[in-house]
Structure of Zn-dependent hydrolase:
Amino acid sequence: MRPSDRVDGARLLARLMDLARFGAREDGGVDRQALTAGEILARAELVRWGRELGLRPYTDAAANLFLRLDGAEPSLPPILTGSHIDSQPTGGKFDGAYGVIAALETVQAIRDAGLQPRRSIEVVAWTNEEGSRFSPGMTGSDLFTGTRQLTIIESDADAAGVRLGDALAGVLGADVDIPHRPFQFEVAAFVEAHIEQGPLLERAGIPVGVVTGIQGTRRYRVRVHGEPAHAGTADRAERKDALMAAVRMIAAIDTAASSPADTKLTVGLFEIKPNAPSVVPADALFSIDLRHPDNAVVDRLDTEIRKIVERERGPCTVELKQIQHSPSLTFDSAVRATIARCAQVLGFPHQDIHSAAGHDARQLHYVCPTGMIFVPCRDGISHNPAEWSEPDDLTAGTRVLADTVWTLASEA
Amino acid sequence: MRPSDRVDGARLLARLMDLARFGAREDGGVDRQALTAGEILARAELVRWGRELGLRPYTDAAANLFLRLDGAEPSLPPILTGSHIDSQPTGGKFDGAYGVIAALETVQAIRDAGLQPRRSIEVVAWTNEEGSRFSPGMTGSDLFTGTRQLTIIESDADAAGVRLGDALAGVLGADVDIPHRPFQFEVAAFVEAHIEQGPLLERAGIPVGVVTGIQGTRRYRVRVHGEPAHAGTADRAERKDALMAAVRMIAAIDTAASSPADTKLTVGLFEIKPNAPSVVPADALFSIDLRHPDNAVVDRLDTEIRKIVERERGPCTVELKQIQHSPSLTFDSAVRATIARCAQVLGFPHQDIHSAAGHDARQLHYVCPTGMIFVPCRDGISHNPAEWSEPDDLTAGTRVLADTVWTLASEA
């Protein structure tokens, strides 16, 4: 009897659809941004499901949620498996949620198979992976792994001015009987299942991706300061138009990033003040998200971006702040081999695949052996209400996850 | 005894500074957008000042405020004089407010001189000239003159979703004993005093500008529709990036409008959705404000703008909507001559000047003889907290206004 024998695809899908009710959008998507009411209710539902399975819930100062199945040797560092349940404002039902529900199904399958692992296994939901409300994301895994410190970021505010520290206090204050644990407890391994968010597996007709690593990312905020002026009277030569300066910068950066063709450049956030049709904009703020698997490409564009913002600012002033720099990384070879072997034994076609997106697994990679399992998603679409994965693929990925986690939890 | 003899510059300035308390910004500017609490309180203060002077207040369905001094022949159409008291979010103390306070000072000077005009004189404050909250502006003068219909625009909403009709109902409901009048009652003439919002009078050292007309304006809203996608995974070739399309459009339109050099092009409003750093923008909305004294220039750029948005949309779709088209106009020659003659008699240097900005006088021009008086403002700065005019210039403009209004009210 292997845990994968007891993975129930229908139950997995039912839980995914159940979770998607929290923060449901009218267009079928999900808007369940971190620490909002929708996410708070979804987190409480996870606790309820975990308790029904006999798992003990824990949390920490980042509101990360852990659901623990005790192993035969409970003093050993546990295996963690999971992802996140927060979404983008225009998110779908699978990004993040799949990894958490697949982890819960994994633990249930192990229990239903009448097996007890040597090491304890914990289902985890990391807080604010997406970073759409409190930016940047990966808050829970960053704090857990010590990449960032709560005392430094607790004053960060969302667009409405709510502080991260207050939002966390609100969520933690509503918890009933969930003990707290410190950050950075020892972890034996972390495995995260996720939809690919790209088209490669679907095109290849392969249900399981063994993730080799994560491409490098740099994220910036650019603030342009000009001066407000009257749209009808201020002469072009006398304006300090923050919007026009920002437009010139973005157009030039887009051109610079057009080669190599697999460079990912996104300006996803753009705000101006006073944002009134008859006033020359005094301030502009925009984000830059730059990614490429080759660190040298990202580093070259970093240099170009810094030159461009100075060159195009005109009479305005500009501040460029890099808020994240995550080099490309390669996951632990033993974990990758275990995933591939479990897929092989189950007879699922599988292939190595590089992750273009960032994941909580990035942070865990620096503190314990870490791996990821990808499943195909339709047309590669993600961060979009149309996000979809076929139930057979979701089940295949979960079966591989179950055997992988069981194997890791059984090893010496 | 002429009314200008009794214009009190200190009282004028004191009332301007008093009014600037409503919606005061910490930086010394004013944020008193239409139908907000700040404007409601400022309007109530005007009513109080008017009643102290024995003027009778009236309003209408647009919440325009009229303060009436009865003439010897009260059945004759009145002379209207005033401007507006709403401001831009980053506005100053003078734009609009000066014309209303100068009108109040005019009426007080006439009364203090012991004079009674033949025609009634009404101080007027038109609602929502600026259009920063409910766009486009000129709402009060548009509705009064029949340019727009309340039944058509009452459902227009501000950024927070508040309907114009509800905002008006809130203001009118709080009025105490202010009778309503219909729109489009007959008006004998309208005179509006205003700061220049440009640098010409100050540079020439001339305190009084006789406004010859208003330059042509076209205003647009452009909506670009793309598709949300994941910043890390969606390939450049597969994206429908609404922000990048909008940036290309604005850069091209800016280039097209760079000649002739006195073309005024402003993109003052720019919003994207979902506005999240890790999501390729699905939608972009921006405003275009285009002005030039020569109608042919505005018309040529109108054609170019329509071509550019189609050419630069890439895989996105685009809707361009013209929300305003106001051709250049020339004010009534008799009113202009009266203003110039009054300035001449008072010994104030004066010159003809074209208005680059739109004003409520534009709408009144189509229903009655209309004119405007400009006074210099420092460095031509307006729509900016730093807006400033010298007290001597404010007084000079008001003295010319007082004699002009008196002359018009005395004519057959």
Remarks:
- The first strand of chain B starts at residue 56 and ends at 59.
